């Protein structure tokens, strides 16, 4: 009797334990499901101008409370989109990192709205020894002849400031920071700056000046000439000679007098009274 009662109590305790475990398991599963969401992340490093295909992204569970704004929950929505800002492997792909829908791959995809890309020929000096890399900012200096001068003095003047480097040669990746000496640099400019840059390279030689990426200051300079470089003072302005003005005064005629001629031998004189 006692054994039967013990067996019944054991079975009841076992059933209750299983029910509690099952209930706890369901609660944990439900809580876990509510606490995560699907997010599309990159399966490899994505470079600027690169179209995304199905093998480059996949979805993973992401804590619901820390989902970045603009993420995609379905990886299929990313197929065919073009990357405008580099994405690291394992990072979520955000709408702000992509070019508009329908954009084709290539350099044109990374050009900002309202801007243009223009390429200038450089050498190892003009190209800042290869340190002007995609993503850096440069100033553009032109060396030409100073206008309006009879002796045609040479002048160097900054004509454009804080210009974004889009590409060096055919490289647009901003991940590689190793210097590269190339023969061409592509810059992002406004249409007005493109006209100015095109004129500058036709009237003189160009130089690029690398600047700090967070430096927003704009400076107005007078340019450098040979005289300012050597510390030669500008010649003083020559005063224009004053033109003499001949003043004519009205003549007052003396009262008319009577005169007679006197001839003495071969000499002739005039006597007035």
UniProtKB/TrEMBL annotation:
The lineage of its organism: Bacteria, Pseudomonadati, Pseudomonadota, Betaproteobacteria, Burkholderiales. InterPro entries: Pilus_assmbl_Flp-typ_CpaB (IPR017592), RcpC_dom (IPR031571), SAF (IPR013974). The keyword Signal applies. Residues 37-99 form the SAF domain. Residues 1-21 form the signal peptide. CDD domains: SAF_CpaB_FlgA_like. Pfam families: RcpC, SAF. The keyword Signal applies. Keywords: Signal. This is Pilus assembly protein CpaB.
């Amino acid at each position: 009797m006692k054994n039967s009662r013990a067996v019944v109590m054991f079975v009841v305790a076992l059933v209750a334990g299983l029910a509690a475990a099952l209930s706890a398991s369901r609660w944990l599963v439900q809580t876990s499901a509510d606490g995560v969401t699907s997010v599309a992340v990159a399966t490899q490093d994505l470079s600027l101008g690169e179209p995304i295909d199905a093998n480059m992204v996949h979805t993973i569970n992401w804590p619901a409370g820390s989902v970045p704004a603009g993420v995609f929950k379905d990886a299929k929505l990313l197929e065919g989109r073009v990357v405008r800002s580099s994405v690291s492997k394992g990072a979520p792909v955000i709408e702000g990192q992509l070019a508009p829908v329908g954009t084709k791959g290539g350099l044109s995809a990374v050009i900002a709205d309202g801007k243009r890309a223009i390429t200038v020929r450089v050498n190892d000096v003009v190209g800042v020894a290869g340190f002007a890399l995609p993503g850096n900012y440069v100033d553009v200096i032109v060396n030409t002849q100073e206008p309006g001068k009879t002796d045609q003095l040479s002048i160097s003047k900054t004509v454009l400031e804080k210009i974004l480097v889009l590409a060096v040669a055919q490289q647009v990746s901003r991940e590689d920071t190793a210097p590269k000496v190339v023969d061409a640099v592509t810059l992002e400019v406004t249409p007005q700056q493109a006209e100015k840059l095109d004129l500058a390279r036709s009237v003189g030689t160009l130089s690029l000046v690398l600047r700090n990426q967070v430096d927003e200051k704009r400076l107005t300079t007078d340019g450098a000439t040979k005289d300012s470089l050597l510390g030669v003072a500008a010649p003083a302005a020559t005063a224009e000679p004053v033109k003499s003005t001949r003043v004519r005064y009205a003549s007052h005629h003396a009262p008319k007098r009577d005169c007679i001629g006197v001839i003495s031998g071969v000499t002739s004189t005039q006597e007035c009274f």
